[in-house]
């Protein structure tokens, strides 16, 4: 059996949720709230065509805001985009 080179959906989700929850040394798991946000974010990045259209939506998901995400969540959204889309 060969090992997969493409990260599995579970790995993607874990990484994304950690980015959203906030990475720090020794932390291996995001909270449930951020896991749910990561799930929505990963799904969104798979269906969208263009990265520049995605950032505001991702920031909104992460912040939980109604169209007015804060600066911190914008930063996380950009980081997440790079991680998920390369
Ligand atoms: Zn969290
Ligand atoms: Zn925010």
Number of helices: 4
Mean pLDDT: 88
What is bound: which ligands? zinc ion
Kindly estimate the percentage of residues that lie in beta strands according to DSSP: under 5%
Which residues form runs of ≥5 with pLDDT under 50? none
Count of discrete domains:
1
| Overall geometry | globular
Label the structural class. Answer: mainly alpha
Helix content: 55-70%
Query: Main beta sheet: strand number and arrangement?
Result: none
Cα(first) to Cα(last) distance is: 27 Å
The number of strands is: 0
Gyration radius, in Å? 13 Å
How would you spell out the order of helices and strands? HHHH
Textual characterization of the structure:
- The chain is mainly α and 86 residues long.
- It has one domain.
- It is built from four helices and no strands.
- Helix 1 crosses helix 2 (32-47), helix 1 runs antiparallel to helix 4 (71-85) and helix 3 (51-63) crosses helix 4 (71-85).
- The mean pLDDT is 88.
- One zinc ion is lined by residues 21, 30-31, 33-34.
- One zinc ion is lined by residues 63, 69-70, 72-73.
Features of the shown structure:
globular; about 90 residues; 4 helices; binds zinc ion; about 65% helix; mainly alpha
Secondary structure blueprint with pairings:
Elements: H1 9-21, H2 32-47, H3 51-63, H4 71-85
The structure holds zinc ion (ZN) (2 copies).
One zinc ion binds next to helix 4.
Could you provide a short overview of the structure?
The protein has 86 residues and is mainly alpha-helical. 66% of the residues lie in helices and 0% in strands. It has one domain (9-20, 29-85).
